[in-house]
Automatic annotation (TrEMBL):
Organism: Paragemmobacter aquarius
Transmembrane segments: none
Coiled-coil regions listed in the entry: none
Species lineage: Bacteria, Pseudomonadati, Pseudomonadota, Alphaproteobacteria, Rhodobacterales
Gene3D superfamilies xrefs: Glycosidases
A Pfam family recorded for this sequence: Glyco_hydro_1
Protein name, as recorded: dTDP-4-dehydrorhamnose reductase
């Protein structure tokens, strides 16, 4: 019987996460903890605790602790002690998309044993920890590393993919065994992107293959990969010993909580109609050629994509407790709010259906850098989270305010939620206007276009206020004034698209005061300066972001 905390009328917990990928791309490494400034910046944990978050996915990454055969725990000692003092419970991640020290891979002989040694060392050093994610998203990582060649070791063959997934399963089982020898009550919170694959005519067989593949890691550690499983023969064919597979069947290590990492682009559609996607490079499987696109763009799949459907699938397959361990939308502020609202509502709905959804984790509280290119680009494309780290101290965003409300009351509201995200059909009923816009004709037109794209309603009696846009006398700057007292200045551009989107985000964040935005580029990449009377006080940006974005120091 479910205990009282699991009753349908209660809300799931609100967890948080900090994007912490440490991965090799080509000859270089990407470390998101450095790039989002968390490695060097003090006060982040206090800010996160201030939101009300009491469980946080947090890195204790093997490659960050161990170098040249020596372990340096000093940074983690300080941060984990601070979390203890703040009453934050970590979900300790030991490998997040990356590899071990010296690029040690789950495909390497001895990886599981060495990884187990490190996991035990973490447990002995921090015996108060209770939740662990030894290896984040093993199937997703193996796809990017070994099928698509995006990350090291940059392979593109199924054999490498299968060996990496199996090696990750062995290592996870070993890690939890070693951890539980020290912390008997330790829980495994195993994360994965389980997006479903849909297919056009003639490609159903490929979708069936990929839909089984997405569950391969969970099936392995749950002891379900026996001779009747669709991947048993494939694993044996690439060198996995029958005795090794049988060991996992005989001594499974099922997750205490299955973590679903669901994004707008997680669900996919395989389309054999190449002409319908002239700007997308086609792929294939050696038998057919097709284009792999986000299923959310396919109107015919409305009602089959999204968080609630993946929750139901995972529950039907495993009947284990679930958490939404990564909820993030790298988009404009209202779309971030709409995606969080959809995930939260899905979790609540699932609980009314008797599904034990424990938590919703707001991922990337400090934002992410270059995930729009899967970390291949070094352009410094920053996506905000609950905080915007392009200023110092980091600014609380509208998403952060929503998180604080969820933590306090179990719900949140915002006028932008009256209209759905772009991935959902528009409602037919009329909604209240959020803004009205006045001023320079070109800027007003740009604001109208931006609001239309973002489903922000304009009208003569706005709920939030009036935006007045003007060109300053010098002809080189633009000024936007908002009813709240916010004044934003930017440099003039031939097309002010980036400026108006950045201004709209600042307005929705509830920002006030006199700000100057510089180095403006598309997608809201900018530096923030806060103006004071008679002077300019620059709001610093983390040095790592400066380097990635190519901004002057």
């Amino acid at each position: 019987m479910r205990d009282d905390r699991e009753q349908w009328w209660s809300s799931p917990e609100v967890w948080g996460g900090i994007e912490c990928t440490h991965v090799r791309v080509g000859d270089g490494y990407r470390d998101q903890i450095v790039e989002n400034g968390h490695r060097a910046r003090r006060g982040d944990l206090e800010r996160i605790a201030g939101l009300g978050i009491r469980t946080l996915r947090y890195p204790v990454l093997w490659a960050s602790v161990e170098r040249n055969g020596r372990r340096d725990w000093r940074w983690h000692d300080a941060r984990l002690a601070k979390m203890q003092a703040l009453g934050i419970r970590p979900v300790a991640g030991l490998l997040h998309h990356g590899l071990g020290p010296d690029d040690l891979s789950p495909m390497d002989a001895g990886f599981a044993e060495d990884f187990g040694d490190y996991a035990e060392a973490v447990a002995r050093r921090y015996p108060w920890l209770r939740m662990f994610t030894p290896i984040n998203e093993p199937v997703t990582t193996a796809r990017f590393n070994c099928l698509y060649g995006i990350w090291h070791p940059h392979r593109r063959d199924e054999a490498s993919f299968l060996r990496m997934v199996f090696g990750s399963a062995q290592a996870t089982v070993m890690a939890m065994r070693r951890i539980r020898a020290v912390i008997p009550r330790a829980k495994l919170v195993q994360t994965e992107d389980v997006g479903r694959v849909f297919a056009g005519p003639g490609l159903g067989y490929q979708a069936d293959y990929e839909n089984l593949r997405r569950f391969l890691f969970f099936d392995l550690i749950c002891g379900r990969v026996d001779p009747s499983h669709g991947f048993w023969c494939k694993l044996v064919a690439v060198g996995v010993q029958v005795s090794e597979l049988q060991t996992l069947c005989d001594a499974p290590c099922p997750p205490d909580i299955i973590g679903i990492d669901q994004y707008l682009t997680s669900d996919r559609y395989l389309d054999p109609d190449l002409a319908a996607h002239p700007h997308t490079r086609p792929g294939g499987n050696g038998r057919d050629r097709y284009v792999d696109v986000s299923a959310v763009h396919v109107a015919a799949l409305e009602g089959q994509c999204g968080v609630i459907h993946r929750i139901r699938e995972v529950h039907a397959r495993y009947s284990l407790p679930i958490a939404l361990t990564e909820v993030h939308n790298g988009s404009t502020r209202e779309e971030q709010l709409r995606w969080l609202a959809e995930a939260w509502e899905a979790a609540q709905l699932a609980r009314t259906e008797g599904i034990a959804v424990k938590a919703v984790a707001v991922w990337s509280l400090l934002g992410t850098t270059d995930w729009n290119s899967l970390l291949v680009s070094t352009a410094g494309h920053y996506e905000c989270g609950a905080f915007d780290v392009r200023s110092m101290p980091p600014r609380l965003t509208a998403l952060g305010t929503a998180v604080a409300d969820l933590c306090e009351t179990g719900s949140f509201s915002h006028p932008t939620l009256e209209r759905p995200g772009w991935w959902r059909p528009e409602k037919s009923e009329a909604v209240e206007a959020l803004f009205s816009v006045q001023g320079d004709e070109v800027l007003v037109l740009a604001l109208r276009e931006a609001c239309k794209m973002r489903r922000l309603t304009l009208g003569p009696r706005p709920v939030l206020g009036v935006i007045r846009a003007e060109r300053m006398a010098d002809g080189r700057r633009l000024r936007f004034r908002f009813s709240s007292g916010l004044v934003v200045e930017t440099q003039a551009q031939e097309r002010p698209d980036a400026a108006v989107h950045a201004v709209l985000d600042l307005i929705l964040d509830g920002e006030t005061g006199h700000l100057r935005l510089s180095h403006l580029a598309m997608h809201g990449q900018f530096r923030i300066e806060r103006m004071t009377i008679g002077a300019v006080r620059r709001v610093p940006v983390p040095a790592a972001y400066e380097r990635r974005a190519g901004l002057p120091a």
